[in-house]
């Protein structure tokens, strides 16, 4: 056989084998091997490639595989540190005592409604007032004031009265669950509560019902608290405007209550609830608390489960109490904090609130814009406040990218956002465009931004190395939401806010205590020490 014929036969055989998807050596050179030469192993027969299964559908809540940790050294290093600092008991839970009631009981329903939680708890425990009576007072106030304030999305009257009745039965039998037992409260309408609407402040979701409970609602139910209402949030957790209108500040009905925890701020300061649960991603607890003159805690990132809450940013969302005193914030926080398997970003760390802290042992700083009178008051209580060194600054694109991912199911259900109507006005274009811009940020830019964010966190850790906390006039909202540091809003005086504005307001003036990571207990203890000798936090607006 000529060499050319053999070559053609070889090529034909190879082509046939390739077409069949099986290229085996024995088909190319005969069925027998040459003497002393082993036959190469047969290659596996290739099968036609199948299409991968479609990706799992995503809504708003499914968390990503990557999780943010506020401690720059990571979760493992944090656990080791907590283990050492607590002598091997980093998960202990410390009960917070409340002073028993003594003296006359307020006879005015309004006076009762404006009492802080720890005083209401003392009344209930002493059987001076029932949960049902207290719930009725708050329901009447909420139904009367909500048409003006627009602070509630859904008033849960039937549910609240039944929970209050159950609390009274338990209390009558001597079963006292703790200081929140029988206390009526409201929750921001970002949190799921089975059988109720959870609207996220948006008309598109005004009929959204859920069949499960958010973890924070579960923990408050277990503590015996009485859920009265789902309270207003700005649309998709921005500002104080939602689909029914604008939630107003009870101190000044010419202005909004700020947001996005607008309803929790407004309802609490107007004594429509005893306390409320808000959320913050970038100012949404601190801002309405300051606007409305409340005491509030934005906890260290990860200390309270966000399961069942609307997601805006997995690495920045936080849940916290909005109250009428620092002690109230401590009582509520003590009931809701701790790790939850349903929230991969959550963890447990010690919380040791101190009724009588020694401020001389606290390392307290202050910024140039800190209120001088508040700093001096801390000095009079034994503290030695020192000026803060330069505080770092920096921004990441985490909020934009993560919120775009969280709302992709709504903005682009078909894969690409539909065009904004040409006749849409500027407000409508802003609303529709909110979650669109960050869709085009490259993945590389997002990762690089998070790398720089860790650098910022380390710079902040270096600044806080010699401080437990510092007093800030501005609140450092942008920075501390990037780094995960806790903040407590504290009323410190009473006077005209923004005297040059068109609508000046006489109300409690507030400042912010920024704590080191996981120093939530310390900033609340210091705020409580200040409030024991002042009554700014007890001032109340005229609610009619």
Short description:
This protein has 544 residues and is α/β, with parallel strands linked by helices.
Class by helix and strand content? alpha/beta
Sheet with the most strands, sense and barrel status: 11 strands, mixed
DSSP strand content:
5-15%
Number of helices: 18
Radius of gyration in whole Å, from Cα?
Answer: 30 Å
Shape: globular
Low-confidence stretches: 14-37
Strands in their spatial order, largest beta sheet: 1-3-2-8-10-9-14-15-13-11-12
Helix coverage percent of residues? 25-40%
The pLDDT mean sits at 91
- Termini distance? 112 Å
Number of E-type strands: 15
Which key features would you list for this structure?
544 residues; alpha/beta; 18 helices; globular
Please give a structural write-up.
The protein is α/β, with parallel strands linked by helices and 544 residues long. The protein has helices at residues 3-20, 25-29, 75-85, 109-113, 117-125, 131-149, 157-172, 215-222, 262-269, 286-292, 326-336, 372-380, 398-406, 408-411, 426-433, 443-463, 477-483, 520-531; strands at residues 152-155, 184-188, 226-231, 241-242, 245-246, 248-249, 252-256, 275-280, 295-298, 318-323, 364-366, 386-387, 469-472, 487-497, 505-515. The strands form 3 sheets. Strands 1-3-2-8-10-9-14-15-13-11-12 form an 11-stranded mixed beta sheet, with helices on both faces. Strands 4-5 form a two-stranded antiparallel ribbon.
């Amino acid at each position: 056989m000529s060499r050319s014929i053999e070559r053609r036969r070889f090529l034909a055989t190879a082509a046939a084998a390739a077409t069949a998807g099986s290229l085996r050596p024995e088909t190319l050179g005969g069925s027998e091997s040459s003497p002393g030469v082993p036959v190469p192993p047969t290659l596996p027969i290739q099968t036609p490639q199948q299409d991968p299964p479609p990706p799992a559908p995503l809504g708003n809540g499914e968390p990503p595989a990557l999780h943010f940790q506020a401690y720059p050294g990571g979760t493992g290093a944090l656990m080791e540190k907590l283990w050492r600092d607590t002598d091997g008991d980093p998960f202990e839970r410390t009960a917070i005592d409340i002073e028993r009631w003594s003296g006359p009981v307020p006879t005015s329903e309004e006076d009762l409604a404006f009492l802080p939680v720890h005083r209401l708890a003392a009344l209930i425990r002493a059987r001076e007032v029932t949960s049902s009576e207290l719930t009725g007072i708050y329901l009447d106030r909420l139904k009367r004031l909500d048409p003006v304030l627009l602070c509630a999305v859904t008033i849960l009257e039937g549910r609240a009265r039944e929970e209050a009745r159950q609390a009274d039965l338990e209390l009558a039998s001597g079963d006292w669950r703790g200081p929140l037992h029988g206390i009526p409260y409201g929750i921001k309408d970002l949190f799921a509560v089975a059988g109720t609407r959870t609207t996220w402040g948006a008309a598109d979701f005004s009929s959204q019902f859920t069949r499960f409970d958010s973890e924070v609602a579960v923990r408050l139910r277990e503590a015996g608290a009485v859920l009265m209402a789902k309270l207003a949030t700005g649309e998709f957790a921005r500002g104080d405007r939602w689909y029914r209108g604008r939630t107003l500040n009870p101190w000044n009905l010419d202005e909004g209550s700020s947001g996005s925890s607008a309803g929790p701020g407004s309802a609490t300061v107007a004594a429509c609830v005893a306390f409320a649960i808000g959320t913050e991603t970038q100012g949404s607890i601190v801002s309405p608390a300051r606007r409305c003159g409340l005491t509030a805690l934005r906890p260290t990132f990860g200390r309270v489960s966000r399961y069942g809450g609307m997601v805006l940013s997995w690495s920045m969302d936080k849940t916290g109490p909005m109250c009428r005193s620092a002690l109230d914030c401590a009582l509520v926080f003590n009931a809701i904090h701790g790790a939850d398997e349903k929230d991969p970003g959550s963890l447990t760390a010690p919380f040791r609130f101190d009724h009588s802290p020694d401020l001389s042992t606290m390392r307290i700083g202050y910024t140039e814009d800190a209120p001088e009178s508040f700093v001096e008051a801390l000095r009079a209580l034994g503290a030695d406040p020192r000026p803060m060194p330069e505080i770092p600054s920096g921004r990441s694109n985490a909020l934009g990218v993560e919120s775009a991912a969280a709302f992709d199911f709504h903005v682009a259900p078909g894969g690409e956002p539909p065009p904004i109507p040409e006749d849409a006005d500027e407000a409508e274009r802003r609303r529709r465009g909110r979650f669109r811009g960050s869709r085009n940020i490259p993945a590389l830019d997002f990762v690089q931004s998070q790398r720089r964010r860790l650098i910022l966190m380390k710079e902040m850790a270096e600044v806080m190395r010699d401080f437990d906390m510092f007093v800030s006039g501005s609140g450092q909202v942008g920075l501390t939401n990037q780094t995960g540091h806790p903040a407590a809003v504290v009323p410190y005086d009473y006077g005209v806010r923004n005297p040059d504005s068109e609508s000046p307001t006489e109300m409690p003036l507030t400042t912010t205590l920024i704590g080191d990571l996981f120093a939530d207990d310390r900033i609340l203890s210091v705020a409580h020490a200040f409030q024991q000798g002042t009554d700014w936090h007890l001032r109340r607006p005229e609610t009619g």
